[in-house]
Amino acid sequence: MRQPPGYEDPVHPDYVCHLQRSLYGLKQAPRAWFHRLHEFLLSTGFVASKTDVSLFYYRSGDSRIYLLVYVDGIIMMGNDTALLTTVLERLSVAFKIRDLGTPTFFLGIETVSVDGGLLLSQRRYMDDILTRAGMVNCKPLSTPAAITKAVSPSTDPYENPTQYRRLAGALQYLTITRPDLSYAVNRLCQFMHAPTDEHWAMLKRVLRYVKGTLTYGLRLTASPSADVHAYSDSDWAGCPIDRKSTSGYAVFLGTNLVSWVSRKQRTVARSSTEAEYKGLADVAAEVTWVMSLLRELGLQSSTPATLWCDNLGATYMCANPVFHARTKHVEIDYHFVRDKVSTIEFIVSFVSTRDQLADVFTKPLATTRFTALRDKLNVVASPPSA
Fold first, then answer.
1. Residue 21 domain flag
2. Can you give the residue range of the structural domain that contains 162?
3. Nearest alpha-carbon partner for 317 in 268, 266, 274
4. Is residue 117 located within the same domain as residue 208?
5. Is 13 among the domain residues?
6. With contact defined as beta carbons under 8 Å apart, do 209 and 142 qualify?
């Protein structure tokens, strides 16, 4: 940093002002701001979550308040209106805040009221991506990835790699409310370092699919139960370049999709059973985190979480304590799922491939199959009136 013009000390030209408070925009500012907010919330009776550092909760009898922080944006909810008003008054005394009322637009995500719940939509964000790509008037497509052609190494580099990286990064944020884009976007992001013309064509196909589904979002509804169940799937050696497998999972809390992922595995699997077993370990780690959060908030169900897998070999491997010879080469951290099964914290069950919801996260699918799974993931269009 340099001394602002007009504040130099002629006697000590190397001296600068000593800051009494954090400056907005400095690297230290977010940490200082969060530390101050953290201390204030603890002094008012809130408890900092150990599972999610940005989450705070308050309990008083049957009253509950949950407060989530993202940089300088705060979203708060609870079941006691009077208590919420009191907390807002305390916050307004210590900080300069504005109460925007019921959240309708937060971090680029719009909440649309639908029958029995909410629809999380990023319509404005999708319009902005299409504008930046110059594809506002493009022809829409019904799926984000083609099933007729696999990705292959290409020697024709794309002329504007910066544009490719910006749009691929923007699509990553779009997957917050669009799990149906997870596989296609994950595949695009694998070529950030050196995109080719073929990769650019893949990205444009995703944008054409976005154009046809601008009104779609993630639906959240009141669920009759708080049971956790998850679907795990892997496409063995699906990448033609390095022969690594792609894993995907979908975690549901009751009827609501709360977590999902599509990612390439770190190591090459020697069999489909091994690929599925590694995928189960990944979803087991995520479900463990979800259940820890629910337990901390007092919302955990007494029913063990159920993991659904469409590979019988992988389900047997999770339940069998014998260390099979064919898994000697598997990294030991994948075997922790056996401990979860033995303590009845998880139940690993077989599900047919037809009912495997995570199939959409591991490979390109035909239109009929893709649309059916998209609906089951609660990705639906908003009503015309919205």
1. no
2. 106-220+365-386
3. 274
4. yes
5. no
6. yes
Same domain, 123 and 183: yes
Question: Which residue matches tokens 């599509």?
Answer: 262
The pTM assigned to this predicted structure is 0.85
Statement to judge: residues 97 and 114 lie in one domain: no
Q: Which residues of 63-83 are buried (b: 16+ CB within 10 A; e: fewer)?
A: ebbbbbbeeeebebebebeeb
Same domain, 49 and 94: yes
Residue by residue, pLDDT tens for the chain (386 residues) are 677 788 888 888 888 887 776 666 677 777 888 888 999 999 989 999 999 989 999 988 888 999 999 877 889 988 888 988 888 888 888 888 888 888 888 888 999 888 888 999 999 999 999 999 999 999 999 999 988 766 665 668 899 999 999 999 999 999 999 999 999 999 999 999 989 999 999 999 999 999 999 999 999 998 888 899 999 999 988 887 888 999 999 999 999 999 999 999 988 888 888 899 899 999 999 999 999 999 888 887 888 999 999 998 888 888 775 555 556 667 676 778 888 888 888 999 999 999 999 999 999 999 999 999 999 999 999 877 54
